[in-house]
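Incident review: delayed structure delivery

Summary: a single-chain prediction request sat in the queue longer than the usual turnaround. Root cause was a stuck worker, restarted by the on-call engineer. No data loss occurred. The affected request and its eventual output are reproduced below so the record is complete for anyone auditing the incident later.

Affected input:
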Amino acid sequence: QVQVVEFGGGLVQPGGSLRLSCVASGISFSSYAMAWYRQAPGKQRELVAIITSAGSTNYADSVKGRFTISRDNAKNTVYLQGNSLNPEDTAVYYCNADRWFLGQHYMNWGQGTQVTVSS
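Output delivered after worker restart:
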């Protein structure tokens, strides 16, 4: 059974930092691209950051230079470090595991974790 579970959300003051973690089980973790998405109230879900199975990363323009995605394959865990947070970063953050294998697309989502940036 595949499980994707996020940890680390909460309330952060503007200018503060937050580290999110996501543990994925039941999959060949090292073979998956892992990503963080977010969805703010009234807005569409958007890609925040992605790290491929090879370790390459890409970021949304809105978070470049402030957020860092990393992975620990030995722990089946992906992280998102966010610095210099602002109220526009307030959203539910979702972890995603994605893989194409033998013509089949495998995608698994976590339940999301709320991040609120407010004073």
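Verification: The mean pLDDT is 97.
Action items: add queue-age alerting; document worker restart procedure.
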